[in-house]
Amino acid sequence: MATKLLLTDVAASCVKQIPSNYIRPISDRPNFSEVERSGSIPLVDLEGLHSHRRSEIIMQIGQACQDYGFFLVRNHGVPEKMMNNALLMAKEFFKLPENERMKYYSDDHRRSIRLSTTFNVKTEKVYIWRDFLRFHSNPLEDYVHEWPPNPPSFRKDVGEYCTGVRALVLRLLEAISESLGLEKDYINKALGKHGQHVSMNYYPPCPQPELTFGVPGHTDPTMITVLLPNEVPGLQVFKNGKWMAVNSVPNTFVINIGDQMQVLSNDRYKSVLHRAVVNCDKERISIATFYYPSLDATMGPAKELIDDDNPAAYRNHSFSEFYEKFWNRGLATECCLLDLFKSSVV
Ligand code: OGA
Ligand code: NI
Asked: Which residues sit with Cβ closer than 5 angstroms to ligand 2, an ion?
């Protein structure tokens, strides 16, 4: 039998035990008994963001970015049907026959669409319990023709979803700029030509979820990330020295700020560690939409946020330098990626 490259096809034939190349060292496992289950991340209701309540909502967003780096949004303007359709397309894509899925397989992160497994097959010895289909989506008309023609409504449904999420993100970036005391369009401009990448993550049921991760602890190398998980729990956020389970709330998105927001805000807002765990009986799907600066954008703390008490925490750098390091280092490494860009490091 030919070796299966994708987890979807490995998992289909593994009943009681996971293959040895998915077993993580004892010191690097989920430890389910230590997870905090009664906490929650802030929920921000965006209804009224364009009314007299704007400053109050902006304050809530700023507080969430500062204290958690994560928040849920409701009344976000993306119709529920669009969210469900996108999740359905992801689910159906991963159900396609292996030969149809494999047409998209690539281990080159520079490709504008690719299906792969784990995080980076080139650098990892122990794989994580995930396949992902990752593609660019802005401007939509430049990329939609590269997307899978199957399932038949993939391009239409996912295209609409991406347009809806983009409108939400533009509003959030304005709100976050204002919460930092910056001009409303500050972050939008700092991004240059926006990169919008979508990752459809597929986590098959796993016979031994205590030995592996869906995604190990990491921070996102983005400006901001919009996550839409299906109803199966799995996301955990690191808060006060503990992993805290994030419960899904119907019809909300999980928003988290990424490393580049930490840089831009000169450490006011923190890009927080998070991870996903898997479970024995239910497949988990999530759609992450990542917002990146353009590769040639120069990133650094906003000068308005630098003063004698708050010197620049990071050196200016091109986003491409940062992004290449992200892909080549692996996810769960000792020193965090941002440490390499501290202004004290030369
Ligand atoms: C990610 C991520 C979490 C999840 O893709 O960066 O953190 O719940 N995913 O799928
Ligand atoms: Ni993430």
From this structure: 220
Whether residue 346 is contained in a domain is answered as no
Residue 16 inside a domain? The answer is no
C-alpha span between 237 and 30 (Å, rounded)? 12
DSSP codes joined into one string, 91-136? HHHHHS-HHHHHTTB---TTSSEEEEESS-TTT-SSPPS-EEEEEE
Cα 121–Cα 122–Cα 124 angle in degrees, nearest 5: 65
Residue bearing the CA closest to ligand 1, atom 5: 288
Q: Which domain holds residue 168?
A: 2-10+22-341
**Is residue 32 very low, low, confident or very high in pLDDT (cuts 50, 70, 90)?**
very high
CATH code for position 139:
2.60.120.330
Q: Is residue 48 part of a domain?
A: yes
Dump pLDDT digits (tens) for 259-295.
999 999 999 999 999 999 999 999 999 999 999 999 9
- Domain count within the chain: 1
pTM of the model: 0.97
15 — pLDDT class (breaks 50, 70, 90): confident
Among 227, 230, 273, which is best to mutate for testing ligand 1, by the most ligand atoms less than 8 A from CB? 227
Best of 70, 133, 201, 230 for a ligand 1 pocket test (most atoms within 8 Å of beta carbon): 201
- What are 138-150's pLDDT values in tens digits? 999 999 999 999 9
